[in-house]
Structures
1.
Amino acid sequence: MPLFDRFRRQLAEHLPSQTDFLLGFSGGLDSTALLGLFAELREKQPHFTLRAIHIHHGLSPHADHWVRHCQSICRRLAIPLIIEKVSVDTRDGIEAGARQARYGAIKRHLRNSEILVTAHHRQDQTETFLLALKRGSGPAGLSAMAVKSAVDNLPIFRPLLPFSRAELEHYVRTVNLPWIEDESNADNQYDRNFLRNQILPPLRRRWPHFDRAVQRSARHCAEQQQLIHDLLTESFRQNYRESDRTFDLSRFPHYSALQQNALLRRWLAELGCNMPSVVQLEQLIRDVIFARADRNPQFHWQNQVIRRYQKRLYVTANFADLSAIRLNIQPNQTITLPDNLGTLRLCETHDGLLAEWAHHRQPLPATDLPIQIRFAYAGKVRTRNGIHQDIKKLWQQANVPVWQRRRIPLIFYGEQFKSAVGFFTDYAEPSIKTGR
């Protein structure tokens, strides 16, 4: 069957009702074949809406030339082209940084009606499988790439996975479309290039059907992973709370070690997190889940933190330490709070003051003392009935996790704690003056 007919069958099988596509276009052979196939498809089915996006990473001296080449091809095929220039964060490696920048840029442009289409083919699948094998991945990682999947909630379609690079090259030459070669593809310091250039050629000479065999193995792993997913669904539903995306630990000790690991991975996948290694997962279970009941353990991992509170696991950002922050504020003033906590406004009312933060509104008495916003206090609070209680007890009564307590704006009149906005107020009188 001709390649185009097989391509059209892929689309009909996996996305029969999809009409809007955003095509990832680097200008290389694979993505040029992708554009050509979709352009040919649109000729036969004009209701398809196509756009292409080219990411300018700025990593090659030829990057500007590639942009001009992509513009020329898209003009020829009458496909609108988006050029997006990105900055690559190389702290976790160039490959990881480029991938993160690329998907971030695509997310900004992808319309709700569209699905991203990439040009990954059979040999790419082999490389992805072997890279996962090198990392010691389980069935999920060894499943490699699916024809349809999502990365960071970005829907992706890979219709060329069943096709070989040789088939794509033959197609592109047949329709007379030029392509560019990225010089970095020859740099074997990158793991994928090392596999592509040094390891896989002799394997393919020895075993010509090696790529097809790897593809079958990846499919078997995907089936096993789906079976694990199905078998754990009921247990996962019993432990996962969708409202705050937390994981209940009440039943956790009763599961086997294999079930514990699988449920945690399922939870992290549900949150869109990268998977921890075996060692990291063991550390999480030992140092956080099974830490003493009076502890507030946390596991720092990448740019996130997994925390335990009242027999539940939470995933949060790696928050800044705000304990030394002091922000002066006047009545009828709005100030921006640190670490993405939004704004707080202090309004004068006929009864005194009103603090407004997020969805909280906190009435306060008037004062002639300087007013400050802070985020740390460990003393006592006088309640409405005149009892002095440790603030820790009040946080516990309000069921506020430990890390959130350090992110709630605290209002001070002079040096006296007055209010945790939206939660409780100190009713002590001596330093309060009401004659504004």
Note: The first helix runs from residue 3 to 14.
2.
Amino acid sequence: MQELFSNSSNLPAEGGLTHLDAAGEARMVDVSAKLATHRHAVAAGLVRMSEATFEAIQAGNAPKGDVLGTARIAGIMAAKQTAQLIPLCHPLPLHKVEVRLLADPRLPGYQIEAEVVTKAETGVEMEALTAVSVAALTLYDMAKALDKSIEIESIRLLSKTGGKSGDYRRQE
């Protein structure tokens, strides 16, 4: 690994990769000079399952109990722990985390959406994506006794506001 960075041509150019230092080592970006601004992010994902599993969850008949409530709380908790899970993320004071699980009989399954808000020096996209991911994994865990073929799909950022890179809205 040392050889990879021994040649200066392998070093990131000025203004290049922000999470590498001059020696090519991973680092947490210094955001201390940035102003704290309002940040908002929304992420989404899908969980597909059999019709029978979907109906059991909707009826409240899953063996492990409240599938949707547990997944919602897990998503909120995950957003709050993002900096401990993703190595170079900054710990952020989260002002709002909302996780919604919307029944979609056409899948059949659930659309999961997470909205995260803060006032900080860096954005909350990773917190929103983490919330969706862990909510989906928890839904799987809570329902796997009914259906091990449940699929988690299409986890993606829908929108974000604030910060130097500006606003983003996914075109779907």
Note: The beta strands are 37-48, 94-104, 109-120, 151-161, 168-169.
